[in-house]
Specification:
There is one protein chain. The strands form three sheets. Strands 3, 4, 5, 6, 7, 8, 11, 12, 13 and 14 form a ten-stranded mixed sheet that branches. A two-stranded antiparallel ribbon has the order 1-2. A two-stranded antiparallel ribbon has the order 9-10. With 304 residues, the protein is an alpha/beta fold. It has three domains: 81 residues, Winged helix-like DNA-binding domain superfamily/Winged helix DNA-binding domain (Arc Repressor Mutant, subunit A), CATH 1.10.10; 97 residues, D-Maltodextrin-Binding Protein, domain 2 (3-Layer(aba) Sandwich); 104 residues, D-Maltodextrin-Binding Protein, domain 2, CATH 3.40.190. It starts with 8 loop residues before the first helix and ends in a 7-residue tail after the last helix. 40% of the residues lie in helices and 26% in strands. The longest helix is centred in the N-terminal third of the chain and has 28 residues.
Length: 304
């Protein structure tokens, strides 16, 4: 591309949109004759006539119409890029309403928010913790983190943070007392601690020795509707549970929990950040999303 390739494009685009050289000059802060000369030079350089001129009006030629559409699209992209850069220069400020899953939000997301609050004095957060899928737009939530499928995300932007991995675990004491199941079939002989709510229990997705992934619904001895009590029941030595690595990593390192089958982890749930769709995210949303992406790119709980 030659240095003068872009000369004349702005006067041309403004002349088309304003309908006259005079109005285009006023928008650009130059004279009417300067607009006319710039467009004439553009036409000579391109070797085509872009505008039909009369004393009262301007109209696009067929070549001019094609060229204007391309120029308008390019200028829109440039505007968007400049808006994005401007957003990055702005300071995160104001109240940010965030909705997080109960256990994961408290353990893994809240510490990131606390670090951001300490660094950005003008940022305030209001955080809700629940496993209900809020409607961000209707309930005025700026940002949410969701585990699992996105479902209906109309009007939202989603950014994947990582994919959750889960596995079977129990205390070493439980496995010493009851033995370690040799295969999926032997799981039915053990006490299963299962996540469930409203009469529905979450299945376990396990890897079969042949490499395939199977989904089972173990006969549950204990059904709990919250991840933290589920972990507490495991730590109490009451049975085997299917838990994500982010929930058990610290206990594994301390030897309080053991993996039933150390070689098998299943990537079973994507984790996303979501926010209402806008041209560019506000600085307060952007800074949180960027921090979450950075933190979960190599999450500490995966270094087992």
């Amino acid at each position: 591309m030659k240095p003068d390739t872009l000369q004349g494009i702005l006067p041309f685009a403004h002349a088309v949109e304003a309908g006259s050289f005079t109005l285009a000059g006023q928008r650009l802060g130059v004279t009417t004759s300067a607009v006319g000369k710039s467009i004439a030079q553009l036409e000579r350089r391109l070797g085509v006539r872009l505008l039909n001129r009369s004393t009262r009006s301007l109209s696009l030629t067929s070549d001019g119409e094609t060229y204007y559409k391309a120029c308008a699209a390019a200028l829109t992209e440039i505007d968007a890029a400049q808006a994005l850069l401007a957003a990055h220069r702005q300071v995160p400020s104001g109240k940010l309403r965030v909705d997080l899953p109960l256990a994961f939000g408290r353990r893994c997301v809240a510490p990131v928010l606390f670090e951001l609050i300490s660094r950005h004095s003008q940022l305030a957060v209001e955080v809700g913790f629940n496993d209900r899928r809020v409607n961000l737009i209707e309930e005025g939530v700026d940002l949410a983190v969701r585990i699992g499928g996105l479902g209906d995300s109309t009007g939202l932007v989603a950014r994947r943070l990582f994919v959750q991995r889960s596995t079977l675990c129990a205390t070493p004491g439980y496995l010493e007392r009851h033995g370690r199941p040799a295969n999926i079939e032997e799981l039915t002989q053990h006490a299963a601690i299962v996540y469930g709510r409203d009469g529905s229990m979450s299945p376990w997705r396990l890897r079969h020795p042949n490499g395939s992934v199977v989904e089972i619904n173990p006969p549950a001895r204990i059904v709990l509707g919250h991840g933290e009590p589920l972990l507490d029941a495991v730590l109490a030595g009451l049975g085997i549970a299917y838990l994500p690595t982010w929930a058990i990593a610290d206990h594994l390192r301390r030897g309080e929990i053991a993996l039933v089958w150390p070689q098998y982890f299943i990537e079973n749930q994507p984790v996303h950040a979501l926010w209402p769709k806008t041209r560019t995210p506000t600085p307060k949303v952007r800074v949180v999303v960027d921090a979450l992406v950075e933190r979960f790119a190599a999450p500490p709980w995966e270094r087992l």
